[in-house]
TrEMBL record:
<keyword id="KW-0812">Transmembrane</keyword>
<dbReference type="GO" id="GO:0008137">
    <property type="term" value="F:NADH dehydrogenase (ubiquinone) activity"/>
</dbReference>
<feature type="transmembrane region" description="Helical">
    <location>
        <begin position="30"/>
        <end position="48"/>
    </location>
</feature>
<protein>
    <recommendedName>
        <fullName>NADH-ubiquinone oxidoreductase chain 4L</fullName>
    </recommendedName>
</protein>
<keyword id="KW-0472">Membrane</keyword>
<dbReference type="InterPro" id="IPR039428">
    <property type="entry name" value="NUOK/Mnh_C1-like"/>
</dbReference>
<feature type="transmembrane region" description="Helical">
    <location>
        <begin position="60"/>
        <end position="80"/>
    </location>
</feature>
<keyword id="KW-0520">NAD</keyword>
<comment type="similarity">
    <text>Belongs to the complex I subunit 4L family.</text>
</comment>
<dbReference type="GO" id="GO:0016020">
    <property type="term" value="C:membrane"/>
</dbReference>
<keyword id="KW-1133">Transmembrane helix</keyword>
<dbReference type="Pfam" id="PF00420">
    <property type="entry name" value="Oxidored_q2"/>
</dbReference>
<keyword id="KW-1278">Translocase</keyword>
<keyword id="KW-0496">Mitochondrion</keyword>
């Protein structure tokens, strides 16, 4: 159990480090956010499995994370159509 906790913590913090270091491209930021969501899902699943609870909440969490990913991809596509690239600094209405 402790090994899984360390694995989830490592995944979570490495995703946060990548998110903080790659602030140029929106696609890399979305990928690192999805990695953080995946690590949180893994920790939630292991926690619920260890305690013997039902996995209904994990399905709700997966549904919300898929909606978040779809919204992020929609923003990415609209940004590429308007600006021509996915550089954050070129999109002047964000800053």
């Amino acid at each position: 159990m402790l090994m899984y906790f360390y694995l989830c913590s490592f995944m979570f913090f490495s995703g946060l480090i990548v998110f903080a270091s790659n602030r140029k491209h929106l696609l890399l930021m979305l990928l690192s956010l999805e990695f953080v969501v995946l690590s949180l899902y893994l920790s939630l699943f292991i926690y619920l499995e260890h305690l013997g609870y039902e996995f209904f909440f994990s399905m709700i969490y997966l549904t919300m994370s898929v909606c978040e990913g779809a919204l992020g991809l929609g923003v990415l596509v609209s940004m590429i159509r308007v600006c021509g690239n996915d550089y954050i600094m070129s999109f002047s209405s964000l800053w």
